[in-house]
Amino acid sequence: MSAPAAISKKVDSLRSQIRHHNYQYHVLDDPEIPDAEYDRLVRELQKLESEYPELITQDSPTQRVGGEPVKSFGTIQHLIPMLSLENAFSEDELRDFHRRVTDRLGIDKGAELSYAAEPKLDGAAVSLLYQDGKLVRGATRGDGTTGEDITHNVRTIDAVPLSLIGNDFPTTLEVRGEVFMPRAGFNAFNEKAKKNGEKTFVNPRNAAAGSLRQLDPRLTAERPLDIYVYSVGQVDGGVVPPRHSEILDRLGGWGFKVCPERKVVTGIDGCLKFYSDIGRRRDSLAYDIDGVVYKVNRLDYQERLGFVSRAPRWAIAHKFPAQEELTVVRDIEFQVGRTGAVTPVARLEPVFVGGVTVSNATLHNMDELHRKDVRVGDTVIVRRAGDVIPEVVKIVPERRPKRTRKVGAPTKCPVCGSAVVREKDEAVARCTGGLFCAAQRAEALKHFVSRRAMDIDGLGSKLIEQLVSTDRIRTPADLFDLTKDELMDLERMGAKSAENLLESIERSKHTTLPRFLYALGIREVGEATASSLASHYGKLVAVMGANEAELQEVPDVGPVVASRVRAFFAEIHNREVIQRLVESGVTWPESEPAPKSEEGKLHGKTFVLTGTLGGMSRHEAKDRIQAAGGKVTGTVSKNTDFLVAGDKAGSKLTKAQNLEIAILNEVQLEKLLSDQ
Ligand code: IVH
Predict the structure, then answer these.
(1) Ligand 1: residues whose CB is within 6 Å?
(2) DSSP states of 189-225
(3) Which atom of ligand 1 is nearest to the CA of 84?
(4) Is the backbone of residue 48 left (phi > 0), alpha (psi -120 to 50) or beta?
(5) C-beta atoms surrounding 279 within 10 Å
(6) For residue range 357-378, what is the model confidence (pLDDT) as tens digits?
(7) Domain annotation for the chain: domains and CATH numbers
(8) So which residues are the catalytic ones?
């Protein structure tokens, strides 16, 4: 049974709508409808196609994804060879090119020769063949003469039109362009792969090339690939305009994505300006480029210029300084960051990469170091893209010298000698030196003086950095010895500001135990935990003397926090700093410790809190019940002793009533707590 004409018409209309929106979204980056509406159109088309499979065509927008895997790629012969480009690495080399072009064309060097200038995309070149406006073949460049048939894979790229827009396209149209993976997609892809323990890609170019060469198109379909087209190959049964820039405009009109950064420029000066403009914006582009390409714009000139061996005489790639280079690892050291994170760093034979000389590159963390297995003496690929910290991408195994040693994890902080600890689920190892460690000092100080900690007004980051770098301040205790003269020696510090700062330092001496504990900057000890510790122990000495098991009796303190607190106070340096702070006059009211759980009046009693309490937050109520020895759980069961019901109590209240559990209002809870 063949599909009714109305259905066939509907299918055609859905396809042309979807194509239009695909084009708006993927090519023009200017969607006209929300994603949900687009999805609805696709689903409607899918439904009709599944009801009437005879209506399915190869160019239907539903046919992008999900072809069967192939065993190997077929080879194809390019109808016209896919050439490569000559490179210019300097302005002089570019001037030579321009001179050769103008000489050959017999035109005045200063003449206004137009070039089509485009970014040089860092991806993989492809050829797309269209017959009567339908995509019939996609191929890699291969060796320029013979490529691989990757039709199934290019079909999965949303920005590759499966059928062309309009009716003025040539019957045979071969379009060439660069498939690339935008940086954001590349980073997200690698993050995910790393998390799943799968292979990551070294850079977006490899990611694009690797994705195109998947035997299973479903895998390609999952990769965030994009394309910009930059030329035509074979053209029959139609004409293309007489200038390169106009051809690209025409390709844009037929539904192809063309790089929006392209420009027609005049003469060598125009080329150089384009190069520096794009170079400046390089890091803010969404994709990697490794230079710019200039093409003599007039096709008749291109024809007259012709080719040398495998490159045209009418085009040249003006390259940016390479972002990846080879060099040798001289040493591997460990650097301590602000939070104590100990990062392996490769000390390198200096190498010019990404426009600067690089002699250090990060190895991120121990897992990365071991995954990449970087050793002293290794030859490595170093990458410096934009302002990003240079990193070691991978080693070159063939160049590894004999007798290298695997790098072990440090056990002591290279800066302060404190223990280095790596928690089970953490990627980074950290120095436990805290306030004592110079590398952590500045950041620790910033935290110490911050508003919710010691609240020292007028001591900004810049001042702290000056004080730390001149070694005037080594620990927070030194803050309290600062003199007016010393402060006035600092940049941008007048007599009045120095006095104000000294006053606020003085004022900060009267603090509270929770603030003080928070100010110490113990990892995992935020304001809430500092408060719990303070109210549980009442006195600083008691917190400092508690062992891990005891610490875990504090509400909300689990094994991780307990071990952090213990490690911090176990460091003699931290204890010394605290001692000096107290001697400088830092003081707070102390109180009696909260009763021990087994002594608490509410010991053995289980509470559930529900609804909104007026006078205290649920969190506060929970802390107080726990401080009195009670337990707070989330669900009402026969083991519940009390349900504390505030306003708008819902199903928990009903359940408690059914189970005949004692129900307390806020006043009754307050009484129970204060009676103890
Ligand atoms: S034109 C005969 N334009 O660079 C002209 N190529 O080194 C051939 N590429 O294989 C290419 N961006 O993969 C051209 N805007 C651009 C390009 C570009 C990147 C790549 C392309 C080619 C390689 C040549």
Answers:
(1) 83-85, 118, 120-121, 125, 141, 178, 230-231, 293, 312, 315, 317
(2) HHHHHHHTTPPPPSSHHHHHHHHHT-SSHHHHHHS--
(3) 24
(4) alpha
(5) 16
(6) 999 999 989 888 998 999 999 9
(7) 5-63 (1.10.287.610), 101-319 (3.30.470.30), 323-432 (2.40.50.140), 434-508 (1.10.150.20), 513-583 (1.10.150.20), 606-674 (3.40.50.10190)
(8) 120
Distance CA 156, CA 212 (A): 10
Distances (CA, A) of 232 to 122, 174, 237, 299: 19, 6, 14, 12
* Three-class SS state of 364: coil
Dump the DSSP string for 117-149. EEEEE-SEEEEEEEETTEEEEEEE-TTSSEEEB
Separation of CA 223 and ligand 1 centre (Å): 22
Query: Residues 48-94: pLDDT tens digits?
Result: 999 999 999 888 888 765 456 566 788 899 989 998 888 898 899 99
82 C-alpha to ligand 1 centroid (Å): 9
| Residue 80: Cβ within 10 Å count | 13
How many CB atoms are closer than 10 A to CB 424? 5
What pLDDT does 66 receive?
A: 42
Contact of 318 with 294, CB cutoff 8 Å: yes
120 Cα–ligand 1 center, Å: 6
Residue (of 146, 139, 154, 198) closest to 65 by Cα position: 154
Q: Tell me the CB-side half-sphere exposure of residue 40, using CA atoms within 13 A.
A: 5
Contact call for residues 48 and 136 (beta carbons, < 8 A): no
